[in-house]
Amino acid sequence: MFADRAKIYIRSGKGGDGHRSFRRELYVPNGGPDGGDGGRGGDLIFEVDEGLNTLTDYRHKRKYAAGDGEPGGKRRCHGKDGKDLVLKVPEGTVIREAQSGKVIADMSGDNRRQVILSGGKGGLGNQHFATATMQVPKYAQPGQPAKELEVILELKVIADVGLIGYPNVGKSTLLSRVSNAEPKIGNYHFTTISPNLGVVDLDGAPGFVMADIPGLIEGASQGSGLGYQFLRHIERTRLMIHVVDAAGTEGRDPVEDIYKINEELKAYNPEIASRPQVIAANKTDLISGEEDPVARLKAEFEPMDIPVFPISGATGKGIRELLYYVSRRLQEINERPIVFEQEFFPEEEIIHENLPYSVEIQDGMYVVEGPKIEKMLGYTNLDSEKGFAFFQKFLKESGILQDLEDAGIEEGDTVKMYGLQFDYYK
User: Fold this and answer.
1) Contact 330, 205 (CB under 8 A)
2) Which of 17, 140, 282, 294 is the most exposed place for a label (fewest CB within 10 A)?
């Protein structure tokens, strides 16, 4: 079964703890601190693999974790960094935070590789905390905690044109005739159970990528039939070819079919339903009787600026005209396939999370601790300009600065957050 959606748990590596030790050498009775730093935790990375076209692997294994950094050692020995974990996904995979549904990353376009969760920074050994007044520091910094998320992976195929329509109207036959795709074709419903992609090459005109979207049926947007599972694949297409059985070989009315499928698109996403369409009136070689269904389709939809092309997937009649029209229309639209913008930023979510923290005065310092602070430090790289700016924003918007002021802090006083110390200035 084609897999285009999976829910997984991901975790970056924890930073290794700094080491607390002192030199013990012959003839050096009062050796100084020599505890080494912990190693950096491994990053959790997503990368596009051109050879993949499903998310099947993520249906069988649900938990993925990068390596933890090793703790520091004696004699200033630095702990080994944790190993990065690279998860390979097909192009077009959208990564969402599971609870909110917000986009973390879209692995398409120029985005071929992205660090989703960075590893925790290694803690500093006690060698870094020696001062003129504290020559025997017994404190070593713990490594920053790992970051973890539950995410949903969704594959939304990358195609310029989507073939839509009821099952068994000839979409797969059309795709196989005009491209290099080799879809399974049969005279029964739901032959296609996965999106098929094909490249259409044209003489003297730009080619394009076409996707055969598995058959939609009435009620698909509410979860009926197989079509619901594949509506997401239409989201990136710039133009849709609506294939209908003009001959009515299964007893359905082609005009009604178009209206019903368009209602399903509108129910799923109104913006998608408003995108350009062209109707491919297929199976014209099987039309019998006096009534001309193609003329009826043209009279109904061409006043709506939806052109109708009579074609036969079996004989090839009319297909050339359809393809060259689609190529010209795509040039007029002149938009790149949709790339979903990032909506979820793990570090910024901490500001709004309802986690506890405390502000206390200890040994003349203002000590701020608690799960909220620990998590913030784990997600934030204070060595970077962006990370430090977020740190300032975090202190203000989470109410910590106000709590410090309420506790009586003044300029020049020291604030301590676990292994981090800084002087307070407005």
Assistant:
1) no
2) 294
CA distance 225 to 414: 63
- Tens of pLDDT, residue by residue over 203-249, are 888 888 888 877 555 454 444 444 445 677 777 888 999 999 888 88
DSSP-derived letter for residue 126 is G
Q: What pTM did the predictor assign?
A: 0.66
The pLDDT tens digits of the residues spanning 169-215 come to 877 788 877 776 554 433 334 334 456 777 888 888 888 888 887 75
β-pair type (365-369, 358-362): antiparallel
Residues 6+ apart with CB under 8 A from 412: 423, 424, 425
